[in-house]
Amino acid sequence: MDMVFRWYGKKDDSIPLQYIRQIPGCKGIVGMLFDIPAGEVWPKEKIKALKEEIELSGLTLKVIESVNVHEDIKLGLETRDEYIENYKQTIRNLAEYGVEVICYNFMPVFDWIKTDLEYVLPDGSTTMAFEKAGIEKSPEEIIRDVENSSGDYTLPGWEPERLVHVKGLIDAYKDVDNKKLRENFAYFIKAIIPTCEEVGVKMAIHPDDPPYSIFGLPRIVKNREDLDWICTVVDSPSNGITLCTGSISEDPANDVYQILAEFTQRNRIPFAHVRNIKFIQDKDFYEAPHLSAEGSLDMYKIMQVLHDNGFDGFIRPDHGRMIWGETGRPGYGLYDRAIGMSYLNGLWEALEKRK
Ligand SMILES: [Mn+2]
């Protein structure tokens, strides 16, 4: 197991690499090129520069999050073939510089939805929350709220230049139901997995966040059955999952421990996002501190299921709260994620020494 930390790049992240290097047990960076729009090839020289910068700090770059899938691929438009060829070239370019895992998602329009990015907890810290009443607002209102509370930072999947077209984007999906979206996914994954196998890269799809339909948009990465379908449609270790314990648990009907056990045994989880959530009522929740006692998930059990089923991939702590006066991109401050990583490393050490 390698513990890694998400970083947006020198220009787009307030946290210096050296600070990340100082988190005990942190091996590497989950990196990205923030300025390459979905559908374009990631240039070798930019990947090389990112890798060199990260390695200079004593960290590794083996995981990328995310290489975004162009909307035309998800919609199944004729133009998709060109974007798929570009995606394959990006995979080759990343592999050439030692990248082993690429996290991505297949969510229409929005990468993820939270209704409050500054939900205040009793201890005065702030976190992201999702409350059903919040999505009774229009998509435009939600976008405005997200932009207003994310300060100077663009959030991943929330690029303003793309989301000005949100109404058109949502309309474009009116003829795409779950069945059609699955067909479009199958077309994409069948096209790219041979390239991944050739160059030794594992694709790792992130579950939908939240894992149920919103704004009438289709969703195909919601539960155990969807993950099983994805793993079966191209049966290859290169066709894997980023198991995000927070996202998958946002539907209380999902048994995160069973899902982790099954797909770790099937060798299909090269990357895990490990975080805790706390249900407020029904499906409403906020992103809790990682510690089990603070949320609704049993983090010991999550790490135990991974450990005992032979997990040998990458783990990163997921979103953290804003604490100790830190400001920055919601979910991606230094302090609370560093605490989360230390806690997860502690659980892992206890599991290793248990026998
Ligand atoms: Mn996640």
Automatic annotation (TrEMBL):
This enzyme's EC code(s): 4.2.1.8
Organism this protein belongs to: Enterococcus termitis
Protein name: Mannonate dehydratase
N-terminal signal peptide: none
Pathway recorded for this protein: Carbohydrate metabolism; pentose and glucuronate interconversion
Keywords, alphabetical: Iron, Lyase, Manganese
GO BP, one annotated term: D-glucuronate catabolic process
Membership in a protein family: Belongs to the mannonate dehydratase family.
Functional description taken from the UniProt entry: Catalyzes the dehydration of D-mannonate.
